[in-house]
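Form 7-S
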Amino acid sequence: MANRAFAALSTRQAAFIDAIAELGATSPISRADLLDFALDAGWSGIPTWITKDADRRVRHGVYSLPELNGEVAVAAAPVAAAPVAVAATVDARLSSIERDGTEATVPAKRDTYVPWGYFTDLETVINSGRFFPVYITGLSGNGKTTMVEQVCAKTKRNWVRLNITKQTNEDDLLGGFRLINGETVWVDGPVTVAAETGAVLCLDEIDMGGHLMMCLQPVLEGKPFYLKKVRRWVTPAAGFTVVATANTKGKGSEDNRFAGAQVMNEAMLDRFAITMEQDYPTVATEKKILTKVFKSLGVDATDFAEHLVKWADITRKAFKEGAVSELISTRRLEIIATAFAMFNDKAKALDYGIGRFDEETKDAFRSLYEKIDEDATPRVESDSTPEDPNKCPF
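Output:
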């Protein structure tokens, strides 16, 4: 075996040799032992560069890896732009994760953000360093996920955001095998990344998921969880916690406003320590938000901001009273502000902003705004009969 000439190892191959050598692997080595060492070192299995090299086969099921005994130099040959696919350390695994698009990072602060509502309480939870899962529910466009993001930005805490769908499963959450650089390797999922790095895991729209997410049960208890495909335990690092956002309380959407929202498993819901029911911001807070948005867009529109906020508030009150089936969200106001900055046309910005609603709702919302803003450009009505200015559009 000593007279065989083996090619210099690549960076990836040398990393594998170093990893299993540290665990006591020697050559020659059986396939079963090699697999055990590989899994214990955090790899997904036996690399194909070993099993497909006829020169390394001593006999059936036994391989020669003289590099383990120091018989062949393991200095890696330079390989241009060849990132580590799998490694034995958390840092090396995260290099692979980052290439796959998931990493724990401190989010950037938003200049237009105004802390309000449960911001301070959520900040207290995250600053505590305790595992204390939080469920945040509320209507769409009121800033639930943005609040989580900005709390992490303020506290300089890493976060991982994952958007949940009905198809989200264990492979998406904890990790799975991926084909990278011609090899099938294990890639940690966002839950595993967040747990091992002590990050805040944001499960966005959690009520859209189904029974395929039940692998989160031990995760939501803050306990170590098992990656059965690679026989590895993951122990959450200090500071790891979970914050979920949803439009419902996990009981489904009876009026179908949030199509696809699932009735969540009660055992999963009960694992969340507290629930925050977030409404839309107050008129005063929303005015601050919109003023900052206009300022960031280079637009001086103080009056417009005030009218928009008053308008949105009336639609929400009407919605709660059952007078209308739609409302204007904070997100919708920011969209209208952006449209106004682009078109410099108040009427056009409004019409584009409410264009997603049905004709009856659009007419009602537009008429309401015209009553609030005396400078609003009225639409051209096909009916010559003048509209009663005192008539409620709802």
